[in-house]
Amino acid sequence: MTNHKVISMKTRILFVALFVAMASFATAQEKKKCDKPTPEQRIEFRVKRMQQKLMLDDKKSAEFAALYKEYLTEMTTCRPNITRGKELSDAEIKGNIEARMDARQKALDIEKKYYSKLSKVLNARQLQVVFSNDKGFGKSDGRKFAPRGKFGGKGKAKNFCKGKKPADCKD
Q1: Largest CB tally within 10 Å, which of 20, 22, 80, 105?
Q2: Which residues fall within 8 angstroms of residue 119, CB to CB, at 6 or more apart?
Q3: Inter-axis angle of helices 39-54 and 58-75, nearest 10
């Protein structure tokens, strides 16, 4: 009888080891890597999303798409060419600041140019959505400027003021 228990214990261990091996082989197979979208695909996605947000009819949608694609492609050229590193010289720091200012000025010029073009297609409220939503593309609901808690997280720090009066828990 004890010999039977030993055999059944050996088979159980063998089954467990076989199961673990099969599970490790299954997870070791190559996972499909998600290809990052190309800049053109990102622009196309942003155009479609903005069209949905603005709820345009077909005629205005076609006009808007062409102009908005041009606008987004031009805005991609506004990225500043800055020097990165731990220790920057004074000249490099000044160059970075000037590059950022030049990029912001270029972006402002492009916005003014496309504001006049898009104002022929969109009304004032739609223009507001286009130009205010562009900076923080997913944060149009006001969360971008929401106050943060004591430790930089979302909302108030939990249990930080436990046992204290609210007047003692000011930022």
Answers
A1: 80
A2: 127
A3: 140
Phi and psi based region of residue 85 (left: phi greater than 0; alpha: psi -120 to 50; beta: remaining): left
Nearest to 136 by CA among 147, 146, 149, 148: 146
Distance CA 109, CA 104 (A): 9
The count of residues in the chain is 171
Strand partners of residue 157: none
Q: Which range (25-39, 44-58, 73-87) has the least confidence?
A: 25-39
Sign of CA dihedral 87, 88, 93, 95: negative
End-to-end CA distance of the chain: 73
The model's pLDDT over 148-164, given as tens digits with 9 standing for 90+, comes to 555 555 554 444 455 55
